[in-house]
Amino acid sequence: MSSKRTIVSWLMFDFANTSFSVMMVTFAFPLYFKNIICGAEAWGDAMWGVSVSVSMFVVAIISPFLGAAADMSGRRKRFLLIFTLMAVLATVLLGFTGPGMAVFAALLFIVANVGFEGGLVFYDAYLPEIASERSIGRLSGYGFAMGYFGALTILLLLFPLLKGGIVLENSQNIRKSFFVVALFFALFSAPLFLALRDRKKTELPGRTFMSSIREVRYTIMHIMNYPDLARFLLAFFFYNDAILTVIAFSSIYAQNTLGFTTSELIVFFMIVQTTAIIGSIVFGIITDRIGPKRTIVLTLFIWCAVIVMAIMTREKTFFYYTGLLAGMSMGSSQAASRSMMARLTPKEHVTEFFGFYDGTFGKASAILGPVIFGVVSVQAGDQRYALASLLFFFILGLVCILPVRSSSTALRAVSRSDA
């Protein structure tokens, strides 16, 4: 197991990058994009959904190849640094966007989100390296808890700038908040790059790239040699689609359907982050006790209850209770999923397989949901119908994960002789 310094620096990266997630993907920027950049037009929902989906599609395509290249070159930290800088610099540039700049802002967001989501491939791949098998669930849970604590911190920090509302009159303060997010992300991610070291490899960059292509091709052709991993990834594809869509549209839904003010939204997201911290820690411990599969099944039932409650909600007060439950299930399902992946992943291909988890399946799953949500919202004229469509994805995920064995003994090593 790694030193405490290494573990703390790994946890601090979660603290840092979730500031981007809550502000630029979940809360402030989606509202700024639709209400100010797109002038509160209905097509803003669809354009936002497409922007999220395109960014996820890019990550889905490149992640396995970059993961394989990182495994073979030993330059995992270098890849993580490049993607982190992409997210930080593009977030800074988003601070200069305004009304009528929808296409430019969408392109910048795509670059920023590719940097954020792509970096998670290399970040998550450190988990089985720094944690023992007995502590993977807890450490994964602690990581998400630190992330939600970071989200809570950035919301408190930016409250003075955002309390004026996500409206044109307050656009200058909103843009300032994007600069703060970029600084927060850069500052608190720095300890990871100082504490971790790349493994030295001798392969040349060009040779590594070609080898990574062959490696990914081999993995795709032989993925069924890992039946439990394949089933889990399919389940993850469906239920993660729904979770990421909830995250991407929660602030827009709360404001447009339920009439939340910006101050009420800030309070709401603080509540969500607080229960997500609790859920990540508690269910991280539970995962090590009952196993990640049972934990995920439990959280999927909770997610179905959350969707039903949100659809039935007519009063703001009841939506706060829905947020409490959503936060608990969000932290726990993500932490348990990462733990499950770490247990089922062959160590010699850890970054490559996390490329499939975070990239191909994790991000490709987010392509369909946001687009469907945006299109249904525009066509039906009611976001409740769009929200109801997510139940289908949660149920499919539940059906797919039931046959999966989560024990480490289920992992079948694949050798080249199997080809």
From TrEMBL:
Question: Per the UniProt record, which residue ranges are transmembrane?
Answer: 7-33, 45-67, 79-96, 102-127, 139-162, 177-196, 232-253, 265-286, 295-312, 318-336, 356-379, 385-404
Per UniProt, subcellular location reads as: Endomembrane system
Keyword Secreted assigned to the entry: answer is no
State the superkingdom: Bacteria
GO MF entry, a single one: transmembrane transporter activity
Major facilitator superfamily (MFS) profile domain: residues covered: 7-409
Q: What is this protein called?
A: Major facilitator superfamily MFS_1
What species is given as this protein's source?
Answer: Prosthecochloris aestuarii (strain DSM 271 / SK 413)
